[in-house]
Write a structure and sequence with these properties.
It is a single chain. By secondary structure, this protein is α+β, with helices and mostly antiparallel strands. The chain has a single domain, classed as Orthogonal Bundle (Cytochrome p450). It has a four-stranded mixed beta sheet with strand order 1-2-7-4. Strands 3-9-8 form a three-stranded antiparallel beta sheet. Helix 7 runs antiparallel to helix 11. The chain is globular.
Length: 414
Amino acid sequence: MGDARMPGILELTPLNPAFNDDPHALLDPLRSQCPVHRDAMAGVFILSKHADVRGTLSDTSMLRSPENAEEAAVMTRRGINREPPPGLEIAPDQPRHSILTMDEPEHMRVREPLAKALYKRVAKSRALVQLVVDGWLDRIGGAKTFDVMDTFAVRVPIDVIARILGVDETRLTEFRAWSEGAILGLHPMPTPEQVERIIACNNALNRYMRGLMAERAAAPRDDLTSDMMALKADGANLTEGEICTNLLALLIGGNLTTTDLIGNAIWLLLTHPEQLAKLKAEPGLINSCVEEVLRYESPVDITGRIAPRDMQVSGCPIHDRASMIMELRAANRDPAAFPEPHRFDIARKDAPHVAFGGGTHLCIGAPLARLEAQVAIPAFFARYPNAQLADPAMKPEWRDLPFFRGLKKLVVAV
C-alpha cells in the first residue's frame, strides 16, 4: 500500500509541530487509510495497525541489525559507516551496538545472561525503589508548587538503576550528571555544544563502569555489576566490552523512557480526575493503570525490524531486506484492538499494548520500568493527595526528541 499524501517518518516525530501537538491527528488517518505505507525518502515501510505491528514483532525470524537492511533503507543504515565523533573513547573490545540492534545468535548470547541477572535483581528491588521514591518526595518537602519532571520523574529512574548497578552513593551526583548528558545522544541532530557534552559524559560513564566492573570482579557486592562479572568468571560467553556496553545501554535507554512513563502517568491522572479517584478508591488497579498509561501515552514511538525474506503484511508486498518501522503509538490506539481507543481507562482489559515492542527484542528493562511506575505513582498521590496542575489552562509542553514522548515540565500545585 502506498500513498504520496501520507506523512513520512520524519513528519511523524516531534520535529513536526502538528505531530508534537497531537500525534493521533496524523496517525489515525495513516492507520485507517494506509496501514502499510512506503516512505521512499527514508527507505522504510511504516506499519501502523496493531495486528500488523504485533504480528511482525512476534515473528522471531525478523532481523534487527542495520547492517542487514537494503541500501535503500537510508534512515535505518544512517549510522553504519559513520565514524565515532573525535574524542569519544571506545575500547577495542567494546561493541558499538547493544543488544537492541543485534541479531541471532549473538543477540541471545548476550541478552540471556543479562536478562536473567537483571530480572532477579528487579524481583527483589521493590524496597529499594520505594526508598528512592520516598527520598525524592522528602526532598520536595513542603513546596507548594514544583515541577514534577525535574524534582521527581527525572530523578527516580537514574537513582534506581545506579543503586542496582552498584554505583557508590558518594558518586551519585556525578553519575546523574553523566547519565543526563549521555541521554542527549539519543537525539539524531544534537547541537555542537550537546555533542561536546555527549562525548564528555559517555567517556566519564565508560571509565566509571570499567572501574566498577574491575572492582566487582575483585571484590563482589550485592549488585548487578557483580552478578555480570561473576557470570563471566563462571564461563559466560561475554566480553567485558559487551557487559559494559549493555549495562550502559540499560542505563541510558531505561532512564529516559521510565522518566516519561512516570511523568505521563501523573499528568494523565491529573487531567482525568475521575480515573485518579478510581485509583485512590481501588489501589489494586495500579498495575492496570500503568499498562493503560503505556498504551495511551507510550514513552516510545517506534521500533524497527528488517524483513528476512519476501513477505506480505496486510496484503502489501515487503521485499527481502526491506526496513520496517513499527508505529507503536498508532498501534496502541487502534480501534480494532482497543474499543474507544482515545479514552483513558485505568481498568481497561483489552488486547495487550505494544509499548515495549515484542518478540525476542521485547524491551529488556520493561519489568524495572513497570516496578518503578507501580511504586512512584501511588507514592506521589499519597504524599500530595490534593495535587493539581498549577495552570489547568496551560497546554502540555512535550519534548522535541524524535521517537520519544515526554513532558518538558509538569508544574503542579499541592
